[in-house]
Each structure stands twice: as C-alpha cells, then as structure tokens.
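ESCALATION

Customer reports they have been waiting on this structure for their group meeting. Please prioritize. Original submission:
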Amino acid sequence: MVLESLIGPKSAEARPRRMFFFGLLYSSIAVILALWIFKEQASLIMVFLTVFACIPLVYKTMKVEEEKDDKIIKESVLLKEHGKAISYLMFLFFGFIIAFSIWYVFLPAELIQNLFASQLQTIKAINSNVIGNVLGGEFLFQIFSNNFKVLLFSVFFSFFYGAGAIFILTWNASVISAAVGTFIRNNLSAYASAVGLSKVAGYFHIFSVGILKYMTHGVFEIIAYFIGGLAGGIISVAVIRHEVDSREFRHVLKDSLDLIFIAIVFLVVAALVEVYVTPSLF
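Update from on-call: job pushed to the front of the queue and completed.
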C-alpha cells in the first residue's frame, strides 16, 4: 500500500521526470527483497515485485487515458494527450534500467548469477539466434519480427490483464540491464588493468557507453511497447465501460488502432537503427 500510494497519473503527468526516481526506488526495493527472501528464484521475483509496485499507477493511467477518449473527439489532440502518459512511463522504465544496471555492476558475481539468471539465459539465446540470422541474411526482418511479437504481447497482456503490459516491459528492462551490466563489467575489467583505478571519469564513460549501446535503438522499441500497451489497456477499459456497438466504443477502438499503427512505425525505425546505426556507433 505504501509504494502504490506515492504517486498517481495526474501527479506523474505534471512532473514526468520524477518518475525516473520512482523507477529507481521500485526496482531497487524489488532487488533487495528478491535477494533477501527468494534468493534462488531472484531473477523472476525481482521482476514480479517491481511489477506489483507499478500496477496501480499503470492501471489508473489506462483508465484516465480511456476517459480522455470520451472527452476529446479530435484525434490529433487525443494522441498528444496520450503522449503525456507515454512520457512519464518512459521515465519510469529508464529508472528500472539504471537501477538494475547499477545492481548488476556492483553486486558480487555469485549474486548476479542468481539475480539475473533467467535474463542471462535469454541474452544467450538471442545472441545465438542473431548469429544464425546474420549468416542467413535475414537480420533486419528477424529484428522487426521479434520486436513485433513483443508489441503484440504488450497489447494482449494489457487487454486481458489491464496493466499486464508492465510485466513485459519490466522483463525487457531487466534483460537490457543484464546486457548493459555485462558490457560494463567486461570493459571495466579491461580498463582497470590498463590504466588502474585512478581515472574515475573513465568508469563513468564506460557506464554511459554501455547504456547508449543498447538504448540507441532500444528507446524506439520501448516507446512502441508502451504505446501498444496503452492501446490494449484503453480497449480493455472501454469493453467494461461501454457497449461494444456504441459510438463511444467505436471511437476508442479507432484511437487504439491509431496507437498500434504508430507503435509499428516506431518498431520499423528501431529495426533500421539497430541494423544500420548502432553497429556503426559502437
């Protein structure tokens, strides 16, 4: 009750950057409790506890956004209003990534193996799959196809479970953080052996590069997933509040389809950036 009472949609919309610190708080408490109470299953418990803290905010957000559909007719204005929710949810997500990444970098190796066991297995599977597709010349299509599946999961989870998309997004945050943390730890080790521990600026540089390496294209993917989750959540609330054949429901459905189309556009951009831009920068 304490965590879920800290902030609501209106407060988050007014000060979206503050959600970054709530993301840090929610995920850090989840990490501590997962390691303390459920050490052997910490990799999934960490995600679940983070999700539990966020569900009230995300569900209230879905309700608020659906209510905007009832009040606002012009689609361009409505999409702009939805953008406010996407903004503060993105800050929440970035808080997750930074917190999980910091825990990954600074925890002892044996704790990392417990805390990120499932995430590291997922990364290993993704990497082996990517290698096979690079050799087959289908990298771009495979990237988009995988991301599109996650988008569909976000829509369906939100539709069937209300705020369910936050589970998909928190899981993605933990996987990204494991990849970022692995990159940082590997490079810190090489940097420390080369120049010693005196140049602190170099360590911050490695941390920044680690984040940017995965978020250059990842930011477009995450925006798409949040948009898809919002679309599914809005439809879910509308099914409860309106008759399916009513004018109000048709308006909500049109708005949700527009959001899904926008999400697909973001996924196309994300795939292009991941294949052609990220490798040239890192």
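Sent to customer with the following note: The longest helix spans residues 200-241.
Escalation resolved.
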